[in-house]
Prior knowledge:
This protein has 232 residues and is an alpha+beta fold. It contains seven helices and twelve strands. The longest helix is centred in the C-terminal third of the chain and has 13 residues, at 197-209. The protein is globular. It starts with a strand and ends with a strand.
Amino acid sequence: xxxRPVLFSAPMIRAILEGxxxxxxxxxxxxxxxxxxxxxxxxxxxxxxxxxxRWEDWGPRTxxxxxxxxxxxxxxxxxxxxxxxxxxVRETWGCKDADRPGVPGGRKPQPGDSIQYAENGxxxxxxxxxxxxxxxxxxxxxxxxxxxxxxxxxxxVQRVQDxxxxxxxxxxxxxxxxxxxxxxxxLHEGYSNYLDCRQGFWVLWDSIxxxxxxxWDSNPxxxxxxxxxxxx
Length: 232
């Protein structure tokens, strides 16, 4: 079992804490052009005399998936782990016990300090008053400050448009009929007043990934990761 960090926005943190979010989709980065998902038969073809290289002997237990490109099939390992591995969540945070690094007399946060989380409204108000210290970016959260631990239960590869209604709901999207006009803030909260959660996920996806060149219309390949929360 391995542990890896993963970043989530405050609204998605809230969805995890409320038990609404059990999946996440992340862009699959690959140098090769992917035509489709590969098959074990394609991988094993030509390897009949080399049993240790047969897909069944190593692929499923190492977290690899098979992808097809042109006339060949190749194996790619998920950077977010395999079933049984764990993801510790990084989120926007603050530490009132420590000053900003580099400030005379200040120090960096350390284990044992009181940690505040931007997702938590009871904590957040302390950081909105004039002269308050800034929130610390999620990317800088150390392992000891993380409060959420997730266990990977399934890893798939698919195109983002292949998401089902059930999976869109597992992504934390809430379908609220009559919610009214959707604002950018609502999108990040996961609310949808579209026909279904899948359409809501479409808009949510574009609000985050379109500017990065991975919009819904380009239908990028993604890692579809299912997880459950475990004790941190």
